[in-house]
Amino acid sequence: MSIQLFQSSVAGLVRVSGEDALPYLQSQLTIDLHNLPEGRTRVGLRLSLKGKVLFGAQIICTGEEDFLLICKDAHSQTVIDLLGQNVVADEVEFEPVPEDWKEIFLYHPTSVEEACQVLGIDSILPGHAHAFGNGWVYLSSLVPPTGLTIMLPKSCPTPWADTIASPHPGEFQRLRLQQKLFLPGLEIGEDEFPQEGGLHKPSVDFNKGCYLGQEVMARIHAMGNVRKQAVAIKGTGNLEESLPSPLLANGKKVGSLKSQFLLPDNENWIGAAVIHENALEIFETKGLLIESTGQSIYPLI
To answer: Which DSSP helix (H) or strand (E) runs through 82?
Structure first.
């Protein structure tokens, strides 16, 4: 199978700099930035005091006192407002990165090296971010591991992409959801703990110092489980006008529909939901109902 190309927009990019950029972000985010030297990248989360996900970002260390936060679903000003809430006398600056940006995902089902060849890159290691044109290229834990993520200004030409097949965007979401890769902010948001979507595995360091939401993370880590779980789903019919939307089993709310993505036939869709553990068996055997429309959802297999 040949390389496939998927392109999408990015809600916001924020540059964090200053003498206290590292210690301040260390107190705000779930990953240990002391282990993120220049040219390295990871997905980190900003949690509420109750341990719920407020936003997630692909964080690239671009210098000793300089970090770039790439936020797929959170606008720059939202990120800046949240990060700035606890600044007192810290020497740290938050700036939106100008221009509109695009995210390109080059996918091959078995080999990321195939995608590297398209860009003229010998190889790329997990956790490394390479400068590419006016942007960056890296492997992200939020997408299938045999693909490359390229972040570029929308104005940047990409002649190397002209001959690459570009399937329907719903097919990218299918690839992601089939591997149970759920997005912070969009699918695991202000009502969810990272553990409910598996985001704690790549994006929470349990042995780092204090950060917002740390006590809750430590408590859940010690308990070993949460009561809700993100699942990949499928359905047919019109998309919801607004999300999240309640999900019902036997007339009782048991979860929330978090995302929907139309498939190429324009009739069927896939997405993500967060469901209480007591309703998982019903969901897997009979499906659940969307409260607002009465439409059924079923597991995406």
So the answer is: helix 76-83
For the stretch 30-86, pLDDT in tens is: 999 999 999 999 999 999 999 999 999 999 999 999 999 999 999 999 999 999 999
Q: Which of 225, 245, 269 is the last residue of a domain?
A: 225
Distance CA(288)–CA(249), nearest Å, equals 6
CB contact at 8 A, 300 and 270: yes
Q: Read off the tokens for 113.
A: 């090296």
Question: If pLDDT is split at 50, 70 and 90, which confidence band does 228 have?
Answer: very high
Those residues whose C-beta lies under 8 Å from the C-beta of residue 164, and which sit 6 or more positions away, are 2, 3, 4, 5, 106, 118
Strand ranges (E), 135-210: 135-138, 147-153
Torsion sign, CA atoms 212, 51, 65, 75: negative
Spatial contact of 73 and 123, defined as CB atoms under 8 Å apart: no
- Any idea what the CATH number is for the domain that residue 280 is in? 2.40.30.110
